[in-house]
Each structure stands twice: as structure tokens, then as C-alpha cells.
Amino acid sequence: MAYWFIGALYISASREIKRFESVTKSPIYTHFGETLNGVSTIRAYGHEKRFIEANYNKIDDNAQPKIYMTAANRWLGIRVDLTGAFVSFLAGLFALMASGGRVDAGLAGMSLSYALNFTQHVLWVVRFYSINEMNLNSVERVVEYLDITPEAPVSIPDRVPPAEWPAEGRISVEDLVLQYAASLPPVIHGISFEVRPREKIGIVGRTGAGKSSLALAMLRIVEASAGRILIDGVDISQIGVGDLRSQLTIIPQDPVLFTGTIRSNLDPFNKHSDSELWLALRRAHLLGGDVCEASQVNSAGTISEHVSPESSNGRIIIHESSTADGKICTIDGLDMAVSENGFNFSQGQRQLIALARALVKRTRVIILDEATASVDFDTDAKIQATIRNEFRESTLLCIAHRLRTIVDYDRVLVLDQGKVVEYDTPYQLLSKSKGLFQHMCLRSGEYDFLFAAAKRKQLATDASNAKH
Ligand SMILES: Nc1ncnc2c1ncn2[C@@H]1O[C@H](COP(=O)(O)OP(=O)(O)OP(=O)(O)O)[C@@H](O)[C@H]1O
Predict the structure, then answer these.
(1) Could you tell me if the CB of 80 is within 6 A of ligand 1?
(2) Is the CB–ligand 1 distance for residue 178 below 6 Å?
(3) How far apart (Å, rounded) are the C-alpha atoms in residues 192 and 175?
(4) Where is each ABC transporter domain found (predicted)?
(5) Is 0.80 surpassed by the pTM of this model?
(6) ipTM exceeding the 0.90 mark
(7) If you take atom 5 of ligand 1, which residue's CA is the nearest one?
(8) Fewest beta carbons within 10 Å, which of 83, 89, 119, 202?
(9) Do 434 and 440 touch, CB atoms closer than 8 A?
(10) What is the pLDDT of residues 347-364, one digit of tens each?
(11) Residue of the nearest CA to atom 30 in ligand 1?
């Protein structure tokens, strides 16, 4: 009973100490990771000392429960030893007193030796029991994750869309309502619009209007709370998310690159030849120089006319000086390593690699989310030209901050506070007095340029319609 009492006290204290220790451990890792990511900024502002101190404080916070744990173990040891000594003493006393002192010497020795061992065993029973209980803290955390509602299945066998889906790229959004969580207010409030096959739609709006949320809804990263999205007549909420996502391409604001090589990032399933990958890199302006034709890519996967690749152990090395404009040339082979999250590339280069990935994949529906936000104007213009030429057969939804990017698109969808406020050709919207799009163009400081470009596009469209 004495052991049980001591054990119960020890376990209830050590369980909580362990909890403190676990809770104070993750801030150390988080802070350390964040410091590593932002080390150049920290150095630039001379704040190394502050971050080192913050690190020490977090380590101290974590060390405190560790000291208490050691103290609790010593507390337990002393009490268990004292109780053990008492047990041994009683065993000796009983041996002397039992049967009037005529107990066998061997038996007396054995009972004394058992009494001494007993203390050690009890100590370990209490220790192991408490370690077991403390470690169940981690199980408790895992159980929290088990309770999270999983995403929809990757594929639903009896609802797999046809292999050629989407053949046209027609998108219908019907009364779409989006919420990030049931407890949060909607960020998209019942919007409806239609996108015709192969149309190029610019999506604009103020910060927080819901543009990125709409892109996430297209991929079902955020599920619709009400309403639906149809692509070529298929309600995307009824099919597997894998089937949906494999047929769409998104170039997000902050593209994800995987640890591996340029090749594994462009073509993770090894479905394309090296020459196709090189061509995509060149068309995404990652190699500098003008866009070349497939015929200029030779069988080794090198681009014969514009650059002079050297072959070295199967790798193709393109020197910066050998490109026509030498601008972004940093790719030194399809086997060039891509580090975690693509941190060995700039944000702009990561977007260009994502564009190259889209060029390789060539899906019928493409979503660009500020796809060219981190590149300079010249490169942006080139990329826009590539997008126009290469994705001619695809339906394109482009979320843009630079209005000149989308002013010659087929139509512009203007979102404001989660609602569609305008949806028409750029020229019609610019001609509409006091419209939000017109207001945004006026504020951009390049109204004349935008108006002229929109008018040119309208005339070209009208002429083409008249021809048909
Ligand atoms: N993960 C999230 N959880 C909760 N609310 C979010 C989340 N992401 C965005 N929101 C909210 O949704 C609304 C729309 O955000 P969204 O990112 O779609 O706007 P946006 O038009 O793309 O803005 P920006 O031009 O700045 O990228 C905002 O009010 C924002 O606070």
C-alpha cells in the first residue's frame, strides 16, 4: 500500500511534467526552422543576438520540466529506497521472531535477499508504468489527427470521368458558396458564371475578393458549401479528387517544387522524353534565348541552334554565356538537383518551372494564380506570349494583379467581397462608366495603354466573329 501511494503521487506529477516537456519542445524546432529560413534577413538587420537569445529561452523553457523530471525521479528513488529498507527491516525482524527464533538460516537468508530485491523491482514497476503512461501522451496527440475528416477519395470507381474528359474545357459555376470552415463566414457568396471552351478569362478584384479561393475551389482544396462547379457537364464534387486534379493544372502564387531533379519535377511519372522537357524549359524562358521549335531539339535532348551544350557524364551543361539573352539561365541539366521546396531557385524561377510543368502536362483547363507575379516585366511579357501561343487550345483562368496581363483576354471576371460584380470583355468593361474594372485601370496609371489593347482585342474578336 505504501508503494502504491508513493507510485500514484509520482505518476500524477510526472505525467504533467512530461506534457510540459512535449509542449515546450515544438517551439524550439519551429523557431530554429524559421531562423534558418530567414537567416539572411536576420543577418541583414543585425538581429542575430535577439534570435540566439530567443533560442536559448526556448531551450531553457524545455529544460525546466526536464530538471523537474529528474527531481521527481530522485524523489521517487528516496521514498522507494526508504520503504524498501523498512521492508527489509521487517523481513529481518519476522525472521528473528518467527517460531521463537528457530527459523532455518537458509530460509531467513532467502527472505532477506528477496526483501532487498523487492525494492528494486517495485522501483522499476513504478518507473515503467509511469513511462508508459507518459508516452501515451503521444498516442493522445495521434488520436487528435485520426479525428480529422479525411479528404474525398482519390477516385470513385463507378464515377470515373471518361479518359478524354475534359474534351472541351467548358466551365459552369452555379451558385457557388465557399467557406474555409463551418465556423467561419463564407468568402464566396453564391456566384455563378460560365466559361466557354478555350476562353481566356482574367480574374481580377481587390485583395481579399476571393480570387485565390475560387482557384482552390476548382481543385476542391476547399469544398463548396453550396452550389457546384461543372467542367464539360461533369459536377466536380461527384468525382474523385485525384481524377479531377490530374486533369487540371494550376500555377499557384507560391509553386511547390519537390526535392529531386528538374526532370522529376517536370515529369514525375516519366511520361515524356528529354527533348519535350527541354523544350518546355525553353518555352517557359528558363533557358534564355528565343523559343525554338521541336525540330531544333536533337535526340540527346539538347537544343541544337541556340545553345552549345557540352555533354559531361550524361549531363547537359548550358553555360550562361551561351544563351541569347543570358537572363535566367540557371538550369545546368535535367538532372540538376532541386532542394527542399525548391529553395535553390528564386520565387520567379519556381513559377517559371511550374509554367514549364504545365507546358509538359498540357491539360484542357489551366489556372494561373498570379503566375507571373515574381518576374520582371520583360520576362512577364515573354511568358504571356508563351501562354497565349501554347495554351491556345486550353481554357485559361488567370488571376492577375497586373492588368496589362489580362487586358487582351477574352473576358474579365471582376470579383468584389466574394461576389461577381462584372463579367464581360475588357473593352466593354472599360467602356462602362463607373465600373470597378474601369476604376482599377484608371488607378493603375496605364489606362491609355490598357484601353488601346482592349480595343484592339475587341476589334480582332469582332472581325473573327464576322468571318465565321
Ligand atoms: N485559409 C484560410 N482560412 C480562412 N479564411 C481564409 C483563408 N484563406 C483566405 N481566407 C479568407 O478568404 C477571403 C478571400 O481570400 P482570397 O485569398 O481568396 O483573396 P484574393 O482575392 O485571392 O486576395 P489576394 O489578391 O490578396 O491574393 C479573405 O477574406 C481571406 O481572409
Answers:
(1) no
(2) no
(3) 5
(4) 171-442
(5) no
(6) yes
(7) 180
(8) 89
(9) no
(10) 778 888 888 998 998 889
(11) 208
